[in-house]
Amino acid sequence: MRLVPVDEATIEELTTILRDGGVIAMPTETAYGLVADATNARAVDRVYAIKQRDASNPLPVVCASRHQVHDFFDSTAQEMALGMLHWPGAVSLVLQTSHELFRVGDGVTVNPHDTSVAVRVTSHRLLQQLAAQLEVPLVATSANISNQPTPYSSVDVVTQFGTQQHQPDLVLDSGNIDRVLPSTIIHVQDTEVVVLRRGPVEC
Ligand code: AMP
Ligand code: MG
Question: How far apart are CA 26 and CA 35, in angstroms?
Fold first, then answer.
């Protein structure tokens, strides 16, 4: 696990790590997150291993833009309106995907249950740039071992993973970041907006 100051890492270096199936711990618009290519089954498996997370608990993803969401996920007019209202920002919307890279049972495991994926357009500039460069959604889940506190500093991240067998490849050191709750998660059921997890944005 390498610790690199955020302003010393280049987009090219970070993109290469993600393209090779690597996992980067980095600040997001909420907490420090573990970031990986959401369409790479090996990378997604590594996120589960690093988090020591139950493989049945699906991972949320981020996109660079609403356009990228549209490319990978299906949305109704109501869901598109919710995206217009909240994105970019810390509201994840549970959408269906029929994209071949997310097909259940086809080696991709962000959600082992069905074809729903919790997705948001991130407002974090670097994370946006990485998803845009990779041209795929990225897993972005809080950078903590399951049931441990959500991390808001690179020290928190290194402390949690430093002695573990499975570690992120790189930690982008941005020092302390603002303590923003993990994203609000919403799901449109019939036409009702159901809040699955309360977060920084009231929905
Ligand atoms: P974390 O990975 O700790 O940032 O938390 C993500 C949360 O999103 C977890 O509570 C997951 O159960 C939830 N989640 C992820 N994907 C889905 C989905 N497809 N449907 C419903 N909840 C989801
Ligand atoms: Mg979490």
Answer: 7
Q: What is the pLDDT of residue 102?
A: 82
DSSP lists the bridge partners of residue 27 as 32
Which residue ranges have their beta carbon within 6 Å of ligand 1? 57-60, 94, 111, 116-118, 141-142, 182, 185, 196-197
Q: Which domains does the chain have, with CATH numbers?
A: 2-197 (3.90.870.10)
CA of 8 relative to ligand 1 center, distance in Å? 31
Q: Does residue 103 register a pLDDT over 80?
A: no
| Residues ≥6 apart with Cβ < 8 Å to 34 | 23, 24, 25, 47, 50, 51, 139, 140, 141, 142, 143, 168
| 142 has pLDDT over 80 | yes
